């Protein structure tokens, strides 16, 4: 491990990063490896789901939703779970996930400083939203089965709605804390270059504002759909 | 305004609080005034709701839920909205809400330091969860009306479920950020006395972990209730 006063590329420049060691892999290699792992995981889980729930095959939108929640589950449980377990060692580590976090942290140094807000939100993401994302994916597959009953479909949307609210709220707080750190404290956690600020920080998180909003709307429609005027008893 | 280096009672002791001026009202007077304002608001809104939606009168649990969301709406829009608009002036101000915030901040100094996390979460609470809490209260009253249709009842529970997820997630992050600030930075935002740590910090926020969990369960039951085996079409 390098010593704690080694120079580092993170913002703000004076921030203390313990034991920083520069990445050994190129950005292209890191992104390719990560994309490969994720693609393999998605291909495998989607194939498994289509096999176990053949009804899924005919429903493109549902397959896309399934893949979205599997992606969320993977990132939350494994990638963000890695951060939760190893945050203090990340700056000096060289395994794939550590190098990916060091690269991403160029756009948000809180990931290499054991920031209390990052830890709080990532712990909840890894242990609550990650498993629930996988559960939604399972429910999507189950609800697409030809034998699926109405209750399964409703449960899927109740669960999907909850995860979507969590995602939108979480990403709003993620952007919000950065905004107010800059406005109130003059602290920017991101390097100013377009790649870091706009592509990593703004761009990579934006899907968690957009996709969950769309999926929440889908769930709201499904949950408030009243069938042919039949009175549904209030519980 | 006192100068920015005036001594103050907040934790950690070295934290900078701009322009602190001690409260002019006693704690008993502050709590009595706040409780009085809230009670008056609840009595008025509940009476109005019972008048407009007589069906509410016979439903004690629904009246309690109505009052809960009106309480949330009041606190989010007005009390927390006050913080959002006036956070920088609170330490030196003497109006009722400023004095209440100065008293509460003995258990969490982030409310007198324009903390970026507090600002991010309180802005969202004031402009999203506050109005939505009032909207849930309106839906509860509307759904209790004898003429209410099924769709209104379902919409109420979809909205209630979303607000409840927001509440539970928000309070988890509130406690979580304090926990990790203490664990990673050795920083406690609360004075150590029982009144501040256990009554204000732990106690006053705990209802937002418990009540929304119960109300979310109510909504889940209502939304996944399948009427007499009738098949409900997936949208």
Task: Please characterize this protein's 3D structure.
Chains A, B: It is a multi-pass membrane protein. Two copies of one chain form a homodimer. Chain A starts with 26 loop residues before the first helix and ends in an 11-residue tail after the last helix. Chain A is built from seven helices and no strands. The first copy, chain A, is an all-alpha fold and 235 residues long. The relative contact order of chain A is 0.12. At the A-B interface, helix 4, helix 5 and helix 7 of A face helix 4, helix 5 and helix 7 of B.
Features:
mainly alpha; disordered C terminus; 235 residues; lipid biosynthesis (chains A, B); homodimer
The parts of chain A where pLDDT drops under 50 for at least 5 residues are 228-235
Largest sheet of chain A: none
Structural class of chain A: mainly alpha
How much is the radius of gyration of chain A in Å? 20 Å
How many angstroms separate the termini of chain A? Answer: 60 Å
